[in-house]
Amino acid sequence: MVYVINFDNTPLMPCASAIARLLLKQGKAKCMKRTPFTIKLLYQTTNYTQNITLGVDTGSGKIGSSAVNDKGDVIYMSQVEIRNDISDKLKQRSNYRRNRRNRKTRYRKARWLNRKNSIRSDRFSPTMTSKISSHLKEIKFIQTILPISKIILETATFDPHALKNPAVLSNKWLYQKGINYGFANTKAYVLDRDNHTCQHCRGKSKDSKLEVHHIIFRKNGGSDEASNLVTLCKMCHDSLHGGNITLKGGKSKGYLKHATQMNGLRVQLLKLLPSADETFGFVTKEHRQLLNLPKEHYMDAVVIASQGSEVSFKTNVVLFKKGVSDGDYQQFKGIRSEQRIPTGKIQGFRKFDKVRYLGVEYFIKGRMSTGYAILMDAKGTKVTLKPIPKFSKMERVQARKSWIISQETLQNIS
Ligand SMILES: [Zn+2]
Ligand SMILES: [Zn+2]
């Protein structure tokens, strides 16, 4: 499947590869992007579009996105890995600055408290700003290649309002009958409250399968309320019901850092995308299991976009994107900063450039001025190659961008 952009840069419905090939051959279109493959028409056509819903599984680490049309055809899937190095980079920068100050290289009087941004009220931390903009960037990108008519965001795993008043659940986001959404919501809340950790062994069993247990059994009149529920791993849960252990008491410790970040993200995204609808993870999970789809961020996005109805995959390609920094700010190295670090191109190559080496595509992880490079795959893992790859044997496929993109084709999908 190929994405199509009209002559006036508005996105059109995607077309089959065969049609795209024909258009390119006849000179009626030109190639715009290689990943994902996008063509631009060289003549104006009428903007025939269908309703396309974009579903986004938001997160503080990974974002899943998918676009599905009214008929349930999946036409886009992606997973973005958000940058996680912002606060480290800022600490590093402040170290460099402190060091420079102590070297007494200043030629003008020191000024203090002149950082307007850091004393502003209602300020977002740089980490949060980066996370929010990663979400917006991906959404804007999809809007450039597909005519999106509706956006649905999964902002949290459970709906806090429905915990107190399950009646609010009955009017939205419930597609299939017969699912106990109220209990699914409470379960999602309990898992979150207990930090996704078994409250008996505190994760010592290394069993990753978590279950929610009724402290007073249901058959003894125990309620489905959060106060009667506790997170246990399958191993502890089985031995508890087998009578081999008794439940240890004690409250779980406070929220993880990511919970606070997620709430900040939720509020900001809903504010910045006022036309977007909101859904919750517990609804997505029920429908993902019903549709029998694998547990992946992009599959959650498919379920969000299709709103729980059956889907057929018109594309089996998933784009994997990873955010990288715009540049390296260290300019010198050596004990007395005597060595300048080359920031320009070395033999025409820069860091994070996409290159083809011996028929395979890689990204440049590191460069040596002697004409060699260290390569990595799109996930950022170093690839060990012998002999060490030479620039002269590489072809530059794409210049560096603020994210590195690769695509994978899924098997056994229909
Ligand atoms: Zn356990
Ligand atoms: Zn139980």
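^ zinc ion complex. The chain has nine helices and 20 strands. The pocket of zinc ion (ligand 1) is lined by residues 198, 200-201, 205, 232-233, 235-236 (CB under 6 Å).
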